Amino acid sequence: MPEISLSLLSLIFGALAIAGGTFGLAQREKAMDFSRNFPRHETIGPVLILAGMTWFLFILHGENMADFEGYRRPFYGIIIATGVGACFFLKDYLAVRGLAVLMILVAKLIVDTARFHESDWRILLVSIAYAKVVAGMWFTVSPWRMRDMIGWATANENRFKILCGTRLALGVLLVVLGLTAFN
Predict the structure, then answer these.
(1) What is the dihedral of CA 115, 119, 120, 124, to 10 degrees?
(2) What is the rounded distance in angstroms from the CA atom of residue 181 to the CA atom of residue 118?
(3) Cα 75 to Cα 29, 81, 130, 153, 174, distances in angstroms
(4) Which of 90, 88, 105, 107 is nearest to 141 (CA)?
(5) Residues of the chain with pLDDT under 50
(6) 72-89 and 44-62 helices cross at what angle (nearest 10)?
(7) How far apart are CA 37 and CA 45, in angstroms?
(8) What pTM does this model have?
(9) Where are the domains of the chain?
(10) How many other CB atoms are found less than 10 A from the CB of residue 42?
(11) Of 75, 139, 76, which is closest to residue 104 (Cα–Cα)?
């Protein structure tokens, strides 16, 4: 994987959180509708699954497989067949499953990047990464849970505003850390 600094990673995730929180606060109805429709979105699902598959293949390509080196090509074939097959045969909650795969891959990137950084603030990002792993595994095996969580989050406008504000605050914290502690 190409090297990325913890500072840049924090800035990217902070900017994404700020954008999501700001969109949720500024365009609440659109954000709530998008959130409610996300779990069964038929366009986003295949994009997320194929993005996760591609990223995983990229990681696998760079790994030293030692005793399993002879099986590298079959691994590629199995991963491609699983990713493409999911797009055709696993349409229910495909967006949730694709997001779950990406959450786990993002967590790997965070942990790998933060591993040797000297700042104690890296624990915040690593904690977020482990939460993403747990959530990613949970949503993979029971994707309807995300639908239920989104239903809870969007059932009340004030609750949705609070969640968006929290996301916005986390984004600001990540940007500040990216500019200071992780620099």
Answers:
(1) -70
(2) 9
(3) 44, 10, 26, 39, 36
(4) 90
(5) none
(6) 170
(7) 11
(8) 0.92
(9) 6-179
(10) 10
(11) 139
